[in-house]
Amino acid sequence: MAYQALYRVWRPQTFIDVVGQEHVTKTLQHALLQQKISHAYLFSGPRGTGKTSAAKILAKAVNCERSPVSEPCNECATCRGITDGSIPDVIEIDAASNNGVEEIRDIRDKVKYAPSVSKYKVYIIDEVHMLSIGAFNALLKTLEEPPKHVIFILATTEPHKLPLTIISRCQRFDFKRITAQSIVNRMKLIVDETGVKCDERALKIIARSADGGMRDALSLLDQAISFSQDQVTLEDALTVTGSVAQSFLNQLAGSIVERNVASGLEALEGLMHQGKDPARLVEDFILYYRDMLLYKAAPNLDESMERVLLDDEFKKMSEQVPAEQIYQLIDILNKAQHEMRWTNHPRIFLEVAIVKLCQMEQKQAEQVQTGEVGQLLSRIEQLEHELQDLKVHGTAVLQEAAPSAHKPSQRSSKKSFQPQVGKINEVLKHATKNDLNQIKRHWAEMLSKLMKSHAALLNEAEPIAASADAFIIKFKHEMICQMAMDNHKFIQAVVDALQQLTGQRLTLLGVPEEQWGSIRESFLNSHQVHENEPKVEEPHIAEAKKLFGEEFIEIID
């Protein structure tokens, strides 16, 4: 007899052999014992999860000579006949190749005939979503009210393609992906029974590559057994599945941690020489970091790991990479994977991604600054509320709270910041528009050079006057002005940044907005000639005065 594949030899013959679908098998077993058999079932789920096998087992169980039973005996003539396909009362139909109206009409015409040998005639329609609309319509009435001796079992991997009128006429059972550990346990049983020597790590690699399908796992195991010599090793499983060894992934991750571009590209070159697919490599690397993130969040959830084995090297690597950096790594790899789908040179994008990962800087210092800025802004908001309350109720509160014999002076109760009026007047004497415009031109670039905590102090501030030696900044809030002028590091940073941009070392003076008006007015009253305006009248203004008369001209700066 010709050799049979493992998944055919080890096809489940009882419900207990259907791995990972206990929610389905228990329900069917209880229904069989209570003789509550439905006329139509819908088995849906991923490939290789046991849908067709469960359908055949159910067909044997309802027709078993020892029924009602929860499991077919597989010993009576009916069970053996259904297993080897010699009984015509269990009809398997492949809807992918028999999807026309005529085939369904043939079923509808023959369904009225009683079974020849067994108790029930069972129709198993595989890949039922491939039926045409006409075929579904032809099946509707028969599926809803078949003869008492007929059971329909529909199997599909894409239940969303079925009409709702078909789904509503069936008992639906959703088969789920089989866990990697369940697949490993099943393969252990098979290799023990067949006498094949197999490394347990190889079984885990095969199970994770099977993507939740037992048939895929057994096909890969069959291939690995044929590829190996005396024993299925980890290297055999990696070769057959096309996966990347975890040691290479650990080496790549180590190069990223150490910021070693040469080592990372060297590891990548070694993988390419082994014939690994770049798309498969980047997918494995994404799953590697995904598992690392899950391990850091929940170390006990071993079953949730998609790609890695929890060895000492992986655990050590997990301790070295913070969770925030893992998010960035996965994001870069995901973008590379997306770009690799639309190019003829995926290796280039993979190499670029490795270089980016190795050169990526941690954002810890920036995060600390962000935290400081958040605290500062929160404090500023609190101070603004207090300042507003003082403006509204401050005078009355202070008068009531302070004893009459010890009243504070009016100046100290209203204003806590005293601008340097003398220096400000000196700047105004020599101020020019060109000096001010130079500051304004470089203002935005200067803000970008400052730390976020320093730039936050200038959110509602602007330069209002400048000379060759100094410039004045107007702050909207007096409290912010005081915080800025008391912060020597802030003043130094602003002056240094402007010096880099303008080439001039200027002195910084600050003034609150509410005090600026009185200072400016006082200066204008004491100086007849405003030195911060051009002394020579501009030509277009002089021409306008000649045409219309000076009394009709109003100059607005």
Question: What are the main properties of this structure?
Answer:
557 residues; alpha/beta; Rossmann fold; Helicase, Ruva Protein, domain 3; Zinc Finger, Delta Prime, domain 3; 4 domains; five-stranded parallel β-sheet; three-stranded mixed β-sheet; 27 helices; 10 strands; 57% helix; 9% strand; elongated
Care to give the gist of this entry?
By secondary structure, the protein is an alpha/beta fold.
Structure in words:
With 557 residues, the chain is an alpha/beta fold. The chain folds into 4 domains: 6-174, Rossmann fold; 180-241, Helicase, Ruva Protein, domain 3 (Orthogonal Bundle); 247-359, Zinc Finger, Delta Prime, domain 3; 421-541, DnaA, N-terminal domain (GMP Synthetase, Chain A, domain 3, 2-Layer Sandwich), CATH 3.30.300. Helix content is 57%, strand content 9%. It has helices at 6-9, 22-33, 51-63, 77-84, 101-110, 133-144, 164-167, 180-194, 200-209, 214-227, 234-241, 246-257, 261-273, 278-297, 312-320, 323-340, 346-359, 364-401, 410-414, 421-430, 433-441, 443-449, 452-456, 478-486, 488-502, 513-526, 539-548; strands at 40-44, 90-94, 121-126, 150-156, 171-174, 197-198, 231-232, 461-466, 470-475, 507-512. The strands form 3 sheets. The chain has a 5-stranded parallel sheet with strand order 2-3-4-1-5, covered by helices on one side. Strands 8-9-10 form a 3-stranded mixed sheet, sandwiched between helices. Helix 5 packs parallel to helix 6 (133-144) and helix 13 packs antiparallel against helix 17. It starts with 5 loop residues before the first helix and ends in a 9-residue tail after the last helix.
